[in-house]
Amino acid sequence: xxxxxxxxxxxxxxxxxxxxxxxxxxxxxxxxxxxxxxxxxxxxxxxxxxxxxxxxxxxxxxxxxxxxxxxxxxxxxxxxxxxxxxxxxxxxxxxxxxxxxxxxxxxxxxxxxxxxxxxxxxxxxxxxxxxxxxxxxxxxxx
Length: 142
What we know:
With 142 residues, this protein is an all-alpha fold. It has a domain at 28-126. The protein is 58% helix and 0% strand. It contains five helices and no strands. The N and C termini lie far apart (49 Å).
């Protein structure tokens, strides 16, 4: 499977700005939560360190728009794991309420389905390319 098949389109203009805003909200939220986990954990176990690294990785990549469909699904699964208490975070954070994770999960799913938009690293790496084929100069036929 080729990577460009993960992306249906890279909308520019207002739709692209809307996708950029969605990515920034989810990426900044995940990155902020990952930093809070690093700063406030008294004892860091392997599970906490791996899940914190995943939060920081997916948040940072969503901010720049790199591998957006894959990492937005990962972000949604991370938030679902936090909501279902699969990851043992022991801190006071914006994610303390399980209901506060529902919008982040929904936005992550929407980003995965819509794609990264034109204002992303994915658009630069995997977006539509214009190929200009110069006219051939043929000798006149006799």
